[in-house]
């Protein structure tokens, strides 16, 4: 089995920064796409950053220029650096990875970490 464990959420003032981390453990042979999503109260989960394996990172306009996704494939870890945070960035952040286990590729999710931006 594969587990994703997130860390780095918390409470921050508007304009501040946070860095999220998500590490995969277990039977990981390789990882393709890595991504971060968020879900605000009463809203659907939305993509905030993605990093295809060997590809170009991509962001929605709402976070472009403020958020940066990076990955360390040797550590099976993805990061999300969030700068110039706004109250509307508040939500639960989830990492997502497409992982090859023993035989097949599957999608996995982290447990979620709360990010709260105070105005």
Tell me the layout of helices and strands:
Elements: E1 2-7, E2 10-13, E3 18-26, E4 30-39, E5 46-51, E6 67-72, E7 77-82, E8 91-100, E9 105-109, E10 113-118
Parallel strand pairs: 2-10
Antiparallel strand pairs: 1-3, 3-7, 4-5, 4-8, 6-7, 8-9, 8-10
Give an overview of the whole structure.
This protein has 119 residues and is mainly β. 0% of the residues lie in helices and 57% in strands. The protein has no helices and 10 strands. It has strands spanning 2-7, 10-13, 18-26, 30-39, 46-51, 67-72, 77-82, 91-100, 105-109, 113-118. Strands 2, 4, 5, 8, 9 and 10 form a 6-stranded mixed sheet that branches. It has a 4-stranded antiparallel sheet with strand order 1-3-7-6, with no helix packed on it. A hairpin with a 4-residue loop joins strand 8 and strand 9. The model has no long low-confidence stretch (mean pLDDT 96).
Short description:
Helices cover 0% and strands 57% of the residues.
Count of helical segments? 0
Describe the main β-sheet briefly: 6 strands, mixed
Morphology: elongated
Percent of residues in β-strands: over 45%
Query: In angstroms, what separates the terminal alpha carbons?
Result: 41 Å
Query: What structural class do helix, strand and pairing data support?
Result: mainly beta
Number of strands: 10
CA-based gyration radius? 14 Å
Mean pLDDT: 96
> Could you name the ranges where pLDDT drops below 50 across 5 or more consecutive residues?
none
Order of helix and strand elements from N to C terminus: EEEEEEEEEE
State the helicity in percent bands: under 10%
């Amino acid at each position: 089995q594969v587990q994703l464990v997130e860390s780095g959420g918390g409470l921050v003032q508007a304009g501040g920064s946070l860095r999220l981390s998500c590490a995969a453990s277990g039977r990981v042979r390789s990882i393709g796409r890595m991504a971060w999503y968020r879900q605000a109260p009463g809203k659907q989960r939305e993509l905030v950053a993605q990093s295809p394996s060997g590809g170009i990172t991509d962001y929605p306009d709402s976070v472009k220029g403020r958020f940066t996704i990076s990955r360390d494939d040797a550590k099976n870890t993805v990061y999300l650096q969030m700068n110039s945070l706004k109250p509307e960035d508040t939500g639960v952040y989830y990492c997502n990875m497409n992982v090859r286990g023993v035989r097949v590729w599957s999608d996995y999710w982290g447990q979620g970490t709360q990010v709260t931006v105070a105005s």
